Amino acid sequence: MIATLIGLVxxxxxxxxxxxxxxxxxxxxxxxxxxAIGFLYIGYTWTDFETAILSFMQAMFFMVLxxxxxxxxxxxxxxxxxxxxxxxxxxxxxxxxxxxxxDYDYFCLTYDFIVGFYLWILNYRGQQNxxxxxx
Length: 135
What we know:
mainly alpha, 5 helices
């Protein structure tokens, strides 16, 4: 429960910070965060070669989504955060959860889904505003 609360507070603080920093490119910031959370798994699992390889593959996948979200389309970031939350749920089924900090899955899942939902709202509103400006 504490990990979920920390994930909630961390995600809200992240959102608040970058909401007030108007000059910051949000695509780049949220893309870098998405990439970083993918690479955290490598740092946690490097002592087990097979798990580290799996962690490396997922980190590369989320790095590509982050890049596409920065360069091509914001929806890749939205998908990346939701998919990373799903990864957090599936991780104990495919790899050794003892390599991760206690309750890391709850923390990261909460963070990913809240940021993903926030980015979805931002993107949806942005598209609505573009459509209303065109009419």
